[in-house]
């Protein structure tokens, strides 16, 4: 298996020339796309709630990554954390549910950032919800987010009774988006709903 599929780091553009180690050769399921120097700048998030898992803190390196991935439309960056995402989700028995984008917003962004993270990690997922507002939570104050009207609706013909879900989003800030989605699934009969995000703001 290849150690790298790109010749230069997707984040800093430096050559991917770190020496091989047993860890990099045996523990990574995918070829590396960023250098070790960039990887070390991402800070793991220390989870205290089993129902709400996040991988990394929202530090300056992550802020820069998210800006280029979501707002500069750099879809290749979906591959950066694919190993870590797959490692946390691949053995889960729950249904993986992706937080959806509004169709107009997806057209503007050119791709769904949550879907692409899961596709890059080779994780099967479903989208039982649809977004009914184009308002961005990122543009709101904390108080405005906490008082947000309904964000999602259940898609037609969804049989959720007694099913368990893990809802996946890119970032958890106040929890408003995930809590709205979680509430709808539980109201529709889901047995349990936990959440998973790449980032905790």
- Which structural category do the helix and sheet elements fall into? alpha/beta
Counted by DSSP, the helix tally is 8
Mean pLDDT: 89
How large is the radius of gyration? 17 Å
Strand-residue proportion = 15-25%
Q: Enumerate the strands of the largest sheet in spatial order, edge to edge or round the barrel.
A: 1-6-5-2
Give the oligomeric state: single chain
From the spread of the alpha carbons, the general shape counts as: globular
Helix content: 25-40%
CATH topology of the largest domain: Rossmann fold
Run of helices and strands: HHEHHEHHEHEEHE
Element layout with pairings:
Elements: H1 22-26, H2 36-39, E1 52-57, H3 60-71, H4 82-89, E2 95-98, H5 103-109, H6 113-120, E3 129-131, H7 142-146, E4 152-154, E5 164-172, H8 176-187, E6 192-200
């Amino acid at each position: 298996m290849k150690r790298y599929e790109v010749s230069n780091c997707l984040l800093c553009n430096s050559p991917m020339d770190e020496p091989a180690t047993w860890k990099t050769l045996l523990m990574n399921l995918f070829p590396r796309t960023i250098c070790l120097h960039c990887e070390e700048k991402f800070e793991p998030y220390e989870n205290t709630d089993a129902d709400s898992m996040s991988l990394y803190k929202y530090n300056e390196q992550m802020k820069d990554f998210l800006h280029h991935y979501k707002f500069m439309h750099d879809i290749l960056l979906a591959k950066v954390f694919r190993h870590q995402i797959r490692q946390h989700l691949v053995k889960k028995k729950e249904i993986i549910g992706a937080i959806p984008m509004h169709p107009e917003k997806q057209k503007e962004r050119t791709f769904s950032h949550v879907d692409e993270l899961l596709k890059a990690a080779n994780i099967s997922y479903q989208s039982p919800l649809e977004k009914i507002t184009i308002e961005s939570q990122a543009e709101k104050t904390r108080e405005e987010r906490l008082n947000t009207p309904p964000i999602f609706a259940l898609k037609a013909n969804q049989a959720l009774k007694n099913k368990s879900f893990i809802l996946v989003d890119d970032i958890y800030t106040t929890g408003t988006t995930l809590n709205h989605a979680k509430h709808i699934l539980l109201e529709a009969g889901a047995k349990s709903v936990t959440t998973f995000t790449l980032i905790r703001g």
